[in-house]
């Protein structure tokens, strides 16, 4: 029986980062994944293909130029499904090649097959060989479960892989429908709804909640919702799909519990995902998953109740991002091999790749209020920055929240072009305990959208001075809190 120091189930962001980290620490490592190529959901049906689709839609539609040349501007006429598929295939090949090379040069062994526990320290891998299923047994000192998730498919919905599909189905067979109904206004739903609308496809988005993306700052989400409505995206909030009928021409019709009906050529379900733990035979390892297939871990060490078995990535639930999964995987491997980290003490950024994109770090205004903090907010509008003028940008805001007495940065929320990159400036200042003073007392490149930080900081500073009636002196030169 083969034996490894570290066996990783799943080659998505958590698994890949953990495997390479453990190999760098001198351990023998095996990664098992049940897909024919490495990369996990992230590379096959999640982050990478959906962001490639977005980039393709923005480039071919000429979206970024429409502020200048008008809404009818097109970079390419007659965009077709092939345009989407070609670019996705190229990105996929590149991502897989890079990852395979990383594994190879770090001496990480890779096995294609479905793993399951046989005991707390041994696994069985089912592999297909020449049409037969063969089983291989593997022993491991430490194990990481990084098997990710699969789309949640409500039992009463007639998924058929053709015109009622989930987001994995879509990526495996990308196409441009004449009209689209997206069910589920979470991150995936909002991203796809806005991406398809860029391609001039009529979109309706249905969600049972009264508002979208409740974990984000309301002002920022309201800005996005305004832009979505302005582009003609239909929002059916407080809407739960009771069933789906098919019209005489075969198009699906969603019937909502309150009697509303919404039809389109394609219905895309994005109503959350469930942990892929079903086939792991967790009982043999003394583990159990919750009703949504997720595993509980110590959020500092990523150990399950079995100290030598770790879990990381989407299988442990919120925040379920590739970005956080990568770090959780690294933290798990570091802990397993004697190099503990402290990632739980840092505020991670969240990026939503809607059109326009949104990103945030730290507290939203609603959270600051709930915590009873004395705070002040400042807002910069991209259309008031020179870079915004040059880019023809008539939308987008950067909102900053800071503590009124210490001036410590509490949160940054951005909607607009470049939000997912710009956020890292705020993230650095926030996680280093910095204050408003940093943004005011430092020069920024000009013209840039990052100038928005300075504008928002000045907005707060002006308010603070108006409220106190005094000139507030700033602390120059340091990112550290001035209080
Ligand atoms: C449409 C979409 C868009 C997204 N966009 C973003 C984004 O823009 N930014 C972001 O940060 N995150 C994004 N995410 C989330 C991101 O993809 C996930 O957070 C990330 O993939 C989770 O990584 P993971 O390590 O948990 O494993 P996953 O990427 O889920 O991979 C797990 C792998 O394990 C395999 N596996 C499962 N069971 C077994 C088994 N028994 N044996 C062997 N292998 C097994 C699976 O087949 C899979 O290959 C998106 C997700 C989706 C669906
Ligand atoms: N940019 C990113 O970082 C990114 C992008 C895409 C996905 N992801 C991750 O992927 C995961 C899955 O995303 P998701 O959007 O599917 O899940 P989600 O849990 O974020 O959202 C699900 C949405 O579906 C709605 N919903 C639930 N049941 C419904 C029903 N019966 N009918 C209609 N709507 C219903 C919910 O109200 C919710 O708004 C998330 O955890 C997310 O963090 C991240």
Automatic annotation (TrEMBL):
Enzyme class: oxidoreductase
Signal peptide extent: none
InterPro entries: Class-I_Pyr_Nuc-Dis_Oxidored, FAD/NAD-bd_sf, FAD/NAD-binding_dom, FAD/NAD-linked_Rdtase_dimer_sf, Pyr_nuc-diS_OxRdtase, Pyr_nucl-diS_OxRdtase_dimer
Family according to the record: Belongs to the class-I pyridine nucleotide-disulfide oxidoreductase family.
Species per Swiss-Prot/TrEMBL record: Novosphingobium ginsenosidimutans
GO MF: dihydrolipoyl dehydrogenase (NADH) activity; flavin adenine dinucleotide binding; NAD(P)+ transhydrogenase (Si-specific) activity
Chain coiled-coil ranges: none
One cellular component term from this protein's GO annotations in UniProt: cytosol
Domain of life of the organism encoding this protein: Bacteria
Name of the featured protein: Soluble pyridine nucleotide transhydrogenase
Keyword GTP-binding: no
Record keywords, A-Z: Cytoplasm, FAD, Flavoprotein, NAD, NADP, Nucleotide-binding, Oxidoreductase
Cofactor(s) of this protein: FAD
Residues covered by the FAD/NAD(P)-binding domain: 4-329
Highest classification ranks of the organism: Bacteria, Pseudomonadati, Pseudomonadota, Alphaproteobacteria, Sphingomonadales
């Amino acid at each position: 029986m083969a034996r490894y120091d570290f066996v990783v189930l799943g080659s998505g962001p958590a698994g890949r980062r953990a495997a390479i980290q453990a190999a760098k620490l001198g351990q023998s490592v095996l990664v098992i994944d049940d897909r024919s190529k490495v990369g996990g959901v992230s590379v096959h049906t999640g982050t990478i293909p959906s962001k490639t689709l977005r980039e393709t839609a923005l480039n071919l539609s000429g979206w970024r130029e429409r502020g200048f040349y008008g809404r009818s501007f097109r970079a390419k006429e007659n965009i077709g499904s092939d345009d989407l598929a070609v670019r996705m295939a190229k990105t996929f090949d590149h991502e897989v090649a890079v990852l395979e090379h990383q594994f190879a040069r770090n001496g990480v062994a890779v096995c294609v097959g479905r793993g399951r526990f046989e005991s707390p320290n041994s696994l069985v891998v089912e592999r297909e060989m020449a049409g037969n299923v063969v089983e291989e047994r593997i022993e491991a000192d430490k194990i990481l479960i990084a098997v990710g998730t699969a789309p949640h498919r409500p039992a009463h919905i007639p998924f058929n892989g053709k015109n009622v599909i989930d987001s994995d189905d879509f990526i495996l067979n990308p196409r441009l429908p004449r009209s689209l109904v997206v069910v589920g206004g979470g991150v995936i739903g909002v991203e796809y709804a806005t991406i398809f609308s860029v391609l001039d496809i009529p979109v309706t988005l249905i969600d049972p909640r009264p508002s979208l993306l409740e974990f984000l700052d309301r002002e920022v989400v309201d800005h996005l919702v305004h832009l979505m409505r302005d582009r003609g995206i239909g929002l059916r909030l407080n809407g739960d799909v009771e069933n789906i009928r098919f019209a005489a021409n075969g198009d699906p019709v969603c019937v909502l519990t309150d009697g509303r009906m919404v039809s389109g050529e394609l219905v895309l379900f994005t109503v959350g995902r469930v942990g892929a733990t079903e086939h792991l035979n967790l009982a043999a390892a003394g583990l159990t998953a919750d009703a949504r297939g997720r595993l509980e871990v110590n959020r500092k060490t990523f150990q399950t109740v079995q100290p030598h078995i770790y879990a990381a990535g989407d299988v442990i639930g919120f925040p379920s991002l590739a970005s956080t999964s990568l770090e959780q995987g690294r933290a798990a491997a570091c802990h397993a091999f004697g190099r503990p980290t402290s990632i739980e003490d840092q505020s991670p950024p969240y990026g939503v790749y809607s059109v326009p994109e949104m990103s945030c770090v730290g507290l939203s205004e609603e959270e600051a209020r709930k915590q009873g903090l004395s705070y002040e907010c400042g807002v910069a509008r991209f259309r008031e920055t020179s870079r915004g003028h040059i880019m023809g940008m008539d939308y987008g805001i950067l909102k900053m929240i800071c503590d009124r007495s210490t001036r410590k940065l509490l949160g940054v929320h951005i909607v607009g072009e470049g939000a997912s990159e710009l956020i890292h400036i705020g993230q650095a200042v926030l996680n280093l305990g910095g204050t408003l003073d940093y943004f005011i007392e430092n020069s920024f490149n000009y013209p840039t959208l990052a100038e928005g930080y300075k504008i928002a900081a000045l907005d707060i500073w002006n308010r603070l001075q108006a409220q106190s009636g005094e000139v507030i002196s700033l602390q120059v030169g340091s990112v550290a809190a001035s209080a």
